[in-house]
Every structure is written in C-alpha cells, then in structure tokens.
Known about the structure:
Strand content: over 45%
Order of helices and strands: HHEEEHEEEEEEEEE
Shape: elongated
Radius of gyration: 33 Å
Helix content: 10-25%
Distance between the termini: 72 Å
Oligomer: single chain
Amino acid sequence: MARIIFYCVIVLFSDIALAQSExxxxxxxxxxxxxxxAQFQRTPAHYTPSFLGVSxxxxxxxxxxxPYLFLPLRTKGxxxxxxxxxxxxxxxxxxxxxxxVAFSARLEAWRGRFGLVSDLYYVHxxxxxxxxxxxxxxxxxxxxxxxxADADAHQGWLAAFGVYRVLDGRFxxxxxxxxxxxxxxxxxxxxxxxxxxxxxIDIAPVPEVQNRLGGRKSWWEPTVGTRLGFALNDCLTLxxxxxxxxxxxxxxxxxxxxxxxxxxxxxxxxxxxxGYQYYSIxxxxxxxxxxxxxxxxxxGPYIAVSWRW
Length: 309
C-alpha cells in the first residue's frame, strides 16, 4: 500500500511540473520559435544579393530583365563615308542634342549554374545641317537654289550568350556571397551611315536632285564575356563584366565593352544599378561608293533598373 501511495505522489508532482512548464512556455510560442529558427537557418541558401539577385544553388528557373541607359561623356573617333573621313569628338550635351532614338535592355534566364543572356541595343543619331544658297535674284529668271545635307548614323546589335556560373559561394569569415560567370555567344550587328544631299531649284514644280552616299552593313561575329562580383552587404553588390567580339568577322576588327558598378537591391525583386562603362568599336569595310569605316570610343555613366522573378 505504501508503494502505491509513493507512485501516486510521484505522478502528481510530475503533472504539476508539466502544467507549470506549459504555463511558462506556451506550446504556440514554442512552435513559432522553432519555425522562426528554421526559417533563419534556411535564409542564407536562398537569398543572395548578387547582380542576378539569386544564387545558383536555388532550384528552378530564374529570370531578370534590365533596361539600361548609357550616357557617354565623351565620344571620340572617326567616321568614313564614301572615302571621306570626318573626325568625331562629342561631349554628352552635344550627343544628347543629336540623339534621335535610343533603346537598350538585357535579358537573363538561369537554371542551376547554366544561363542564357541576351543583350539588345539601338541608337540613332541625326545631324541635320541645312545650308540655303540664295544668289542675287535675277528678275528675268527668278531662280532660288537650296542645298540641304542630312547625316544619319544608326547602330544596333542583338547578342545571345550561353553562360555558366563557374564559382558560386561565400567567404569563410564574412559569409558574403561571391560569383563568377563565363560565357560565349554570337552578336548580330547593324550599322548605317548615310549622307543625303538634296538640291532644289525653285523654278518649276520639278523633282529635287538627290545624292545619297554611304549605306548600311550587317554582320555576325563571335563574342566572349565574363562577369564577377561579391556582396558588400545584404543590399549592395560590387560587380564588373566585359564582352569582347569581332575578331575580324565581317570587317569588325574588335568590339569591346567594359562595365563596373554597384547593384543596390532596393526591394525584394528590384535592383538599381549604377556604374561606369567603356565601349569601343573598330569596323572597316567597303561599299560601291568607297570606304565605310566606324572607329569610335565612348565612356560614361551607366544607369539601370533590374526586375527578377
């Protein structure tokens, strides 16, 4: 009988202790704490403040679209149309005055360490110089002569790369993410340089005399590129990329682009990018009316916004 009473007392005290622990640490609070801890432990493997915004460790497809704006502070080089060469030296203000249309965007699709990257660029500069020659009017003929000259420059390309993430990891001490991408692809270029001269004689309703010099060229070329970066903190990533193409294909001796900048992850799926870019192209060919050359160097700020999903 004493043994039974002893066992009952032990069970009673056990129930009281259990009830006190439940009052002190409710089960719902313990569940929330466990869930938060597990979520905190999972976060580093899924969140990567990189240029793409995600790590190669994340499964499934990831996409990014990045419209960007390149503002060349200096444009220098030579343009040759019909064998006549013109030296070019433009600052940003003059470039914006001549700018007619500009569009550029970069698209990325990734699955694991493999990615597809496409880059689209187009710019149209229009230099309109009208020179009107009006000799002293002859009362008997009543003749006016107008001479107008139009110069147009169109440049655009569409590039496609296959990319592989060679490195994707974190530094041992800081835990900050770093990555290195390398890719190879092709680029389709289109270049148009034309000078149009119109001579109109105001003597009768007859067609104007027109003379168009220059023309357009299109070509394919191989291109290689690389990109690397590392996170400064949870919101900022320092990165740089370069792309080199041409290698003599289609008359393009060399086309080179170098960009370095900061990616600021302002929102969960949106980043703002600021950097500085250098671009050069050395293209030379021939058209029926003479040599056709576009040898240009540009450098200036790079501004972009990137959306990821």
